[in-house]
Amino acid sequence: RHLRPVLLADHLAQLLRAQGVSARLVPATAGEGSREVLRQLRVDWPSGSAPGPDAVLALKQALSRCPYAAACEQGPGMASLPEDVICKVHLKSFVEQQGLVGYDPNLDVLLVTEEKLRSLAELQQAVLQCTVSDPAALPGARSPDASRCSVVHVVSCEEEFQQQQMDLLWRILDPGAHTALQKHLVCGPVKVTNPSFPIGADQYFQLRKRQMYEASVMKYGELAQDEAWTEVIDILTVAAIRFEMLSTAHRSQITLDLEDSSISTKGTKSGAFVMYNCARLATLFDTYLRAVEQGTYPPLPPASKLNFSCLREEGEWLLLFNYLLPFPEVLQQAAQLPPPSKGLRITANTEAVCKFLIQLSMDFSSYYNRVHVLGEPFPHLFDQMFARLQLLGAVRDMFHSALATLHLPPLSQI
């Protein structure tokens, strides 16, 4: 459940950066999972320095002046409080007086600890370090010269309540302009079919890696135990997990099937299938370039010199009109955050990139299985070959751009 919001936040940040919007990830204090798993999953997880004592001290001083804060009284017959509790803050009173909408009605009194203040100081630090590249494009920007940024809490549904507490504490202690733009992107639950034991991020990654290795052995035969194959298996595993976690709309529940049969190197709904087709394109162009070096084919002429009327296959125009032309809009729509309203939750269509890549892979695979791009080296066939290479070169670049939003490097071979 912790892995899903982390992968979603990483993907969302990459999509925003692709649009020229500055985006910065801030780790939660708990639940982000093993840093080693995040490294293996190629998550762009920050390793910035912790906030200094001065930042935490400033928040403590703000607490002492806060009308919603009160000292924690302990006495006979009262439940004992943890030693690290500094004070309590009446969140419900703040929500009612400010007229805030969308918060959990059960939010009442928050026991503030040193750890919560450190988390808050880290959020403040991140906002101060975040540059607004195109303020007019950000939700909530009032004018082109606005300098505020939006804060999006990406959180699992199980931890939404705790994150709303942090949101309100931030609003109370630091009533700056940026805190008004806090929104919550909530992930649905992650369930496992027939779980025989509780599974964490580490076990999940290792299980998928073993399954990917065994599926690859079944398809390609016994694999050499070298760095190249290890790297390929690692990337296929990351692709499988990212697509498994991100192909479903973030609001919906994900049900993981951990059986061996659920992982395949060519299952048309999987990240491995996408990587396989990306590698087919790389192999095609490697083969062509080697043939050019050997004098079998001439080099590819500039696009302006090509005769695109040679593209008569329906699959070729399908790749152009269904994928190449709408691709920029797909990227833009995937990370388009709605403008601020009175509501607290927002949605993003981040699953669109995964679905786009899977459908693209299916249609490209169908076309590539029917058509011989590199035909016989006869001059009268070169015009058609060049036009197809130019088209597929654009498809290859589109694969690479879309995979980059998932922190997946293109594979040159499988």
TrEMBL record:
GO terms for molecular function: arginine-tRNA ligase activity; ATP binding; tRNA binding. One of its GO terms (biological process) is tRNA C3-cytosine methylation. Residues 274-414 form the DALR anticodon binding domain. InterPro entries: DALR_anticod-bd (IPR008909), DALRD3 (IPR037380), Rossmann-like_a/b/a_fold (IPR014729), tRNAsynth_Ia_anticodon-bd (IPR009080). SMART domains: DALR_1 (SM00836). Pfam families: DALR_1 (PF05746). This is DALD3 protein. It comes from Anseranas semipalmata (Magpie goose). The gene is Dalrd3.
